Amino acid sequence: MRIIIFGPPGSGKGTQAKLLTERFHIPHISTGDLLREAVAKKSPLGMKAKGYLDAGALVPDDVMIGLIREVVASGKAKDGFILDGFPRTIPQAEALDRLFEELGIRLDGVISLRVEHDEVVRRLTDRRSCRSCGRIFNPSQLLKDDPAKCPRCGGELYQRSDDTLETARRRLDVYLRDTKPLKDFYRRSGRFTQIDGMRDISTIQEEIISILGKSKLKKTTATG
Ligand code: AMP
Asked: Which residues pair with 192 in a beta bridge?
């Protein structure tokens, strides 16, 4: 399975991708996670990216295209992947198509999560992430007696530095300007399905699984 999970920040891409990874044992490739790891390690990539992440701006295309090429071409993605957070611009999407062609990879689909703008900002500013397992939680999922502890692995929960109100709004603006136009890019290719991301996590997950199942069915039928 080779899919892209698409949508504004806070639409649940990471949450859905992590659930799909657990279910299908396919790597979750999140460019945001890769960049945050690089920043934490203070690697050359991290040093380059930090200012952009802090400001809620996009890391330049050449840096991101180099990063994704390295990851997709590595053994990690050879049996499939769930791409989350890439592509975010038209040049990134075009570069990804070229890379797939070069490597003989066929993208199975792009699943887009649609969430209202006010809800995006509310979710981003309310959510907490786990330092150990990387899971993301909304306030209703936190433990009543210890809201700073990960309900899943017991790790420490934290608020991402780019999940403040001002940066969340900036990230939504960047999405609307630079990333949303990708919907038409993928619609034209016939690989695009948009679903309602305002529903609860498990309902969305079941719909994604059903879409992926149907596309597999279509392929089987098409090949006889
Ligand atoms: P995310 O975790 O996907 O919300 O990404 C967090 C931040 O990482 C973004 O606000 C950008 O600064 C940066 N980033 C992640 N993916 C990309 C990308 N494909 N292109 C440019 N910047 C990115």
From this structure: 110
